[in-house]
## 1
Amino acid sequence: MSSDTPALAEVLRANGLRVTAQRQLVLDAVTTLGHATAEQVHESICDRVAGVNITTVYRTLDLLESLGLVGHTHLSHGAPVYHLAGDRGQVHLVCHRCGAVDEVSPEVFGDVRRSLEEQRGFLLDVGHVALFGICSSCEMANQ
Amino acid sequence: MSSDTPALAEVLRANGLRVTAQRQLVLDAVTTLGHATAEQVHESICDRVAGVNITTVYRTLDLLESLGLVGHTHLSHGAPVYHLAGDRGQVHLVCHRCGAVDEVSPEVFGDVRRSLEEQRGFLLDVGHVALFGICSSCEMANQ
DNA sequence: ATATATGCAAAGGCTTTGCACCTAG
DNA sequence: CTAGGTGCAAAGCCTTTGCATATAT
């Protein structure tokens, strides 16, 4: 795997940054995992290659985010979850009771997006949205 | 201030829990502050009374939340923010660039709520929603 | 060659836990 | 009286920072 994202190397060079194995590994891991915490990215990399430090994973995720290649979402109390920015942002549904994470298309936000933009000039970033509530299983189990 | 919320004492007793000064102080602080982190709640209490421990604030916020009296939202990387559960849930708009927090009425979520309930059986808890994006000031400044 | 990245270890926030003491009931 | 709550100190996660070493260019 190396051609899975639009030329990381080019983006790095275009910004005067260096192309390193670590950066490619981190981006590959995010791509493969879909959504993952820094720690999960780190573990995934360690499955392939030894000796990549978690500090570097954190730094690289920040870097890739500032380059617009990845984004992150806060699903719950714990660590934020990183994902490819190109994924037109899945919206996460987090169940308060059981912690399950489901995803829906960002299209459900069409109207909200429009209203916020018109009323407040706020540009909603759907990739960052996590919605909390009670999932259908818990709902049925509990009532 | 002591009659500002529907009888904390009664709710506590109904659940076989004890009515303590700390619990009333925490609930009062959340009421007064609107939205606040555990640390802010602690500070606010310390302005009135000395010697209430931050550990107790954390434990009490958890307790009040499990009793359904308060709720919390994750606005950004930092600490979660607590608010009265009775507040029909202000929706928070968090700017990624400048960190500003704005609020909108939960009504903007009417349609989303309905779709999620119909399509997924997911009961959206608007009080917990934080939306990320770029605020109008940053938008104008940056483009 | 040299500015940039990395690794390591240490510190930093925020939060939880363990245990002894205290207090509401 | 005694179950439950509090305070204190210590540890726990997740993350960032400082500095020496290594490496892409």
## 2
Amino acid sequence: MVDLNFIPIDYDYFDFNGTPFAKIIGRSDTGKRICLIDTIVPYFWAILKPGVKDKKIKAIQKRIQDIQIHSEKRITKVLKTELHEKKFLEKPVKAIKIFITNLKDIHDVRAEIDYPEIDKTREYDLNFITKYIIERKVKPLFWYKVNATMLDNQEFGGIAQSLNVDMVLKVETIDTLEKYPKFVPKVLAFDIEASDLDPGKGETWMISLYGKNYEKVFTFKGKSKKHKYVQNYEDEEEMLEAFIKAVDDYDPDILTGYFSDGFDLPFLRERAKRNKIKLALGIDGSQPTFSRGAQRTGKIKGRVHIDLLRFIRNAYSQYLQTETLSLNEVSNELLGEKKVNFDAFAATKAKTIDWEKFYEYNLQDSILTYKLFMKAWPDISEITKIIQEPLFNSSRTTMASAFENLVIHSADKFNEIIEKRPHEREIAERRSQPRYVGAFVFQPVPGLYENIAFFDFSSMYGSVIVSYNLSRGTHQDRKHKSSFIGEYKEKPTYFSKEKGMIPQLMEIIIDKRRLAKAEYNKDPNPISKARSNAFKLIANAAYGYQGFFGARYYCIEAASSTAYFARENIKKAIDTFEKNGFKVVYSDTDSIATVLGKKSEKDALNLLDKINKKLPGIMALDYEGLFTRGIWVTKRTGDFGAKKKYALIDKKGKIKIRGFETVRRDWCRLARDTQNKILNLILTTGDDKQALEYLKTIIKKLKDRKIPIKDLIIKTQLKKPISEYKSQGPHVTIAKRMKEKGLPTDIGMLIEYYIAEPENFKNKKRALVRDKARLPDEPGKYDLDYYLNNQIIPSIENIMAVFKINTKELADGKKQKNLFDF
DNA sequence: ATATACACGGATCCCCTATTTCC
DNA sequence: GGAAATAGGGGATCCGTGTA
């Protein structure tokens, strides 16, 4: 017997003698690597129709117990059945819990249960690991007190021998540990350099590894006099073997890369295959396995392979300022560090190669990946703990599926049987639904305003879901004595006032978020910040989740009503501000901007208190702060105020720009920087004088052809295969040309181009922008007219119009003068 | 395949009419 | 003079990218 404290990191399962077992890899509190073997009996539910007599139920149970499935490899039996009082979609039900020997035949067993008294079957679509975590409550990244027996070398077909761990144990008892040590995973970051992106055409030239007190570059190319971390080998095969051994020796819990699901890992796997060796990275000596489908994932047994890009894309990207999620840009923003300035792609094609620089470059990528991982770890870890799915999944999860997993892992607390995933037909039906009305956006009056107080509802949609009890389970098909009355398709729709599972869960999350935020404000530390972040991310996903066609708990009436109640409440608040002498200048979804005018900040806060007292449930309006100036402009197509476009400056001079071209990556640097500068000048000075002078210098510079091409490059993302475009925009045309040149044109790539003057003026065909678009390295004179009329003027015009300045005339006037000069 | 709606604005597409070109 | 080609206006649509 062994007693130890244990933390689960990775989960796997295997069949032995027709029974499934969970294999849980983790660490003991003394840092030993442990594998626990444990099991549960798989089960699913048969929900009975209301009013079935006990005697009848007994008879059904007996019949179910006799079910046997004979397949080629095994016989699956029903082990036992139990009758339970459960809830399904909030309604009390009687349900038979059906235990079976093997999960693989669950669908066949289910098919046998077609008695008229059975309403439906459920929880047959949860995988073994999820079920195991729910049943045994052995959650990832929580500590447990384990009592277990050591396996000898023969048990379970010799599993103890095949695994590279310190101990393999069979669980006797496992209990949560109240006070637990801090867990820091052993992490190794890796990155490869290849002579071609296609493993069929190129080789792996080098592989770098970086961990705590550990740095290595494995290569068979070049020589290093400078760097001790470079290790040379004879050929690719030898290098790969050394890399595999190094990973095995270091024995990390987590192997992380950047885009390693999509490139590094599959590339290595293919190169290993071509070298006729095994890429034995798993703790059992197994090779990585890849999921099929569009989003490929690479799994390594016993070590968690985390593609950091996936996590950053799903969880962080909306909070990042970067224009792409490239390692360089993300590192620069989050770490203030960059990649080594070296063109690896060019190097693979060059005759002479600066190998020392190449090694540095390769290692730096692993260093950045490692540092980014460490920065993201508190968030990854908190999200994992909240949704209770293995790290491999939680690090790749989208927020909607994170929310669903939270529901799945919490259902038992509510005595709820879990709803099934929708069938394809259901999904198609849901997708065909018309859109419901969303947020309210206030039509601003263009102008420059002073002393603007900003307010926003905290967790607007989340708090609406809680306050009005909006969910699938609480949705009613008709009005009851007391119902919340929402709206869908312009008709009332009803929700019970008896608290439902999802609203209750949301309430807990919002409360936990509030606590984590308060804790962070009191004592700023990465853990409380990550907790606050994680709860915020998941809470924000709940509203979208209920309106998402793929959701188990899809409820478009709830989603529509959430938007409806949000609109009602914000409109009411706007009204109250107006009635109390505060002019509202803007509002979008959950925020309200008012000008103080003759009122003081204190007056506004007093009114806020009053508003808050009248808000339903947990809804709350917060004070965001005071802005000294703000500008709203006219829509370009029309003479009224543009929504979702404004700029503010606070007392400290900090500027907040929303929606303007400045923040849009599909405008050229010149237009963005010019607009940014002009907004800055206007907001700081409160007038247009300096801004106008600045604008004139830029226009002159442009006309004098002093602007470098790099400031004129327009970047547009390729969102689908070139052939699928109905409209041949400039970026599509450029992408085609790139393809002809043999350059990569993958979906998701940013296509870069600039607009040049056409060489052949005789071509009278109406000049399309795409015909003038050129690749950045294609020579040409930039098209002055285009950059003036399609970039600078459009981005400035409406700002200057606030001061009654006609930018177009300004620019044209100059142009005429130039023509005369000419 | 993988949360929602609202919104802006460039560029193309496409239809229509006016003008130019050609025989 | 009449048919065909071309230019240009303008709305619809496509497309990408923001805000919340």
## 3
Amino acid sequence: MKRPTIHDVAAAAGVSRGTVSRVLNGDRYVSTAARLATERAIAETGYVVNRTARSLVTQRSGSVVMVLSEPHEKIFEDPNYSTSIRTSIRRLAERDLSLVMMIAGDAGDRDRVLRYVKGGHADGVLLLSTHAGDPLVDALHDVHIPVVSLGAVIGRENVIPYAACDERGGAQQMTRYLVEQGRKKIAMITGPMDTPGGIQRLEGFTDVLGRKASKKLIEHGDWTRLSGESAMARLLERSPDIDAVFAASDVMASGALTTLRAAGRRVPEDVALGGFDDSDVAMSTHPALTTVRQPLAEIAERTLSILLDLIDGAEHVPSVALPTQLIVRDST
Amino acid sequence: MKRPTIHDVAAAAGVSRGTVSRVLNGDRYVSTAARLATERAIAETGYVVNRTARSLVTQRSGSVVMVLSEPHEKIFEDPNYSTSIRTSIRRLAERDLSLVMMIAGDAGDRDRVLRYVKGGHADGVLLLSTHAGDPLVDALHDVHIPVVSLGAVIGRENVIPYAACDERGGAQQMTRYLVEQGRKKIAMITGPMDTPGGIQRLEGFTDVLGRKASKKLIEHGDWTRLSGESAMARLLERSPDIDAVFAASDVMASGALTTLRAAGRRVPEDVALGGFDDSDVAMSTHPALTTVRQPLAEIAERTLSILLDLIDGAEHVPSVALPTQLIVRDST
DNA sequence: TTGAAAGCGCTAACAC
DNA sequence: GTGTTAGCGCTTTCAA
């Protein structure tokens, strides 16, 4: 049999389609009798609203797009995505909103996202890992749709609200700790310099070290394990007497660890190694990584809250930066 | 200004809405003149089709749901998800289908998924990590919607088509290799026994070892690192003279490694350690893990192909099991 | 408090 | 080849 429509329910309940719609949407102008009859009819017929039809008239899609702006290959290499995605799905589901995932790695992808949003198929956009200068950000903003970012969008901090950890403060914690441990020559492996984690963790590093944070002691990675390995190799070649390294992510730290070990350096005896994120890998390396924990689940929660507020019509919602925590393990 | 509709385009092009619809949908009965005028009008007005309106009449949603059946907390702990999700999004986007993600951890979740699908909001369902006996599987099957699973659904192998690696063969490869290396007392840490990876990798293990695969040498984990640690501890306590361990996943192997090291066992000298998946962690442990590579990207591709064929109306599409490859590193 | 009816934007059948 | 038109299933005035 065909799927029952509001029409069938109305017939079964002996009321009009308008009334059925009213009880469906919790309108208060419905008599108890009509409501009861309708509810019974809904149960009997096994009726399920057709969101498509509803969307057509309400102009609301009932879904949110999550845009992953990382180039294809690297997406998800970062273990941090997991928590964010899980949290987003859950929070959205509570509001009966669904999560549509899109990748925006190249121009074609960005175009697809834009068409999708312009087509009115999303009530909000959740940006992940957006790099500075991404044209999609402004394009999206022009569409006048609620947009939020998990982690700041460099250069658009004031136009796209976000929730993030205190990147700079976290990096300061780690650097200060390394200094307090008596380390004299501390190097850093940063993330990409067009991401907040790349820029701000380096800022925190130089905040503490001042002029001791010389160019020679800084290398850039791209968050991958492999980039950590090679950055560490360059660092070691240039400054063999390094006695500490702060990698801007645990994954890169794990890469650096491989290089250090291959070079015959003992960790932490010869070189102390610090990571960032407190992701799963931090526990699986040997020695386990001293790292900076960022409250990922809470960041995701807050990001969603901002988006939902925006969708509910809030004009402007402030961004938030949550405190990090230094987790000392065996690598320092 | 309001978003232009097919009506505006028709007016601008000087044709009827029907004609616009025809060029939009690639109908062949359109004169070149009309087509050109329409295309120009589309460009001029910045028109984007409203999929909602289209869905309402075509009864097609233009999206596919990916259902993650893992209990909430564990989702994504498995690094294998990443590749699957990425591949799915990409393949679907090529067909202009979008990917909606839903979690089905508890009864309420399953109900939501079912309502969504029954509501006609998905043209197909992609199952991930479904456990044996999951009631959602049969419920979904009853809805008569294309359903495919990434990895077999235990107990429903013949009703839900799937793509997977040759789980059993892969486990045989590893076990045989361990035997060939001269290991005498080989233990195994399996996955959950209601998943294909849990069951079939153990089968491969016993296939090779025969009665030497005694109960004493088998422990069950749940794919997490922690479960690998504790399973290893139980194994060691029961049989201190173990000289090899085959963990059904790299993540669990990395947990086992921690326990082995804490117990003073050298890997691989005292105990050889094999994993499964060839995920990122396999390279980040020390020593790097010997493991069984499963062609994740291809498995995901094939899964999507099956689903798309089904959506295109194919009656029955055969499941596939792709060959694995033994990757020898330093842990054996 | 309720019913009737006008669309939301699009596709597809039909007539020309 | 092309225009016209009848819905797809729902919400939301407008009257009553």
